[in-house]
Design brief:
single chain; 245 residues; 7-stranded mixed sheet
């Protein structure tokens, strides 16, 4: 027997990924589309976060992990529960009411919101039944429900956490250049960082390990590669990560 859902509790997931080539912090969204049965006119045509109702036999964390796994095929990535959205008027938009009635779910739904940080290149969007697409966090398409608010709240939390926790490395390849690291910080924080000052500060961080390797397959002069050592960070720095950019 299939486990039953809890009809008025759901989990919505904001999946962040950094694109090294475009230097953009992106959000993974899926298409929401519904047309009239009478004349096939579009009734709903926008984008939403991926979310599901919680099953009776699983925890909220397990629901979030299930959402991510079905969307990206990934697990064991950085996950943060950051807020509950329970406004009684969160589904009063006409399109949302039409969608809720068609999907037969409770319009007074409380959502527990999570965000995930992952490496964009690890997600294969081809042949994905959800047809997900990456969108820059600062250039989002039309969104359904209150998902713009959810994304904005997640982004604000990420900005804050990036200044005192090493979560930014969850978005980068295992081996990265200083320029890629700086680009990621600038994309998240939304402002330019002085190159020399940034490099000087980061070189003092013992958890950033210089490798005996350089970039390959680049047309310009290859840059030095580095890696983040979680073991060194946890052993020496613990919660004293603050970078003061």
């Amino acid at each position: 027997m299939m486990p039953k859902i809890i009809p008025n509790i759901s989990v919505d997931c904001v999946v962040f990924g950094f694109d090294v080539s475009t230097k953009a912090l992106n959000v993974l969204l899926i298409k929401r589309y519904l047309e009239s049965k009478e004349n096939h006119e579009p009734l709903v045509n926008d984008y939403v976060l991926t979310g599901y109702h919680t099953l009776e036999d699983e925890t909220i964390d397990e629901t979030a992990s299930r959402v991510l796994k079905e969307l990206t095929g990934l697990d064991n990535v950085y996950k943060k529960q950051f807020k509950v959205f329970g406004d009684p008027n969160r589904l009063i938009n006409e399109k949302d009411i039409i969608w809720a009635e068609n999907e037969n779910f409770n319009q007074r739904t409380i959502t527990i919101a999570y965000y995930f940080l992952l490496k964009t290149q690890e997600v294969n969007l081809e042949n994905n039944k959800h047809y997900p697409q990456w969108f820059p966090v600062n250039n989002l398409p039309e969104l359904g429900f209150d998902h713009k608010d959810i994304i904005n709240e997640a982004y604000a939390d990420l900005k804050e956490k990036a200044l005192y926790k090493p979560i930014i490395f969850e978005l980068l390849p295992d081996k990265f250049t200083f320029k890629e690291l700086q680009d990621t910080y600038e994309s998240i924080l939304g402002n330019e960082i002085d190159n020399r000052n940034f490099r000087r500060k980061l070189l003092t961080k013992k958890y950033i390990i210089e490798l005996d390797e350089k970039q390959v397959g680049v047309s310009k002069r290859p840059s030095q590669l580095f890696m983040f050592s979680k073991d060194v960070y946890q052993k020496i720095y613990k919660e004293t990560y603050l970078i003061n950019i």
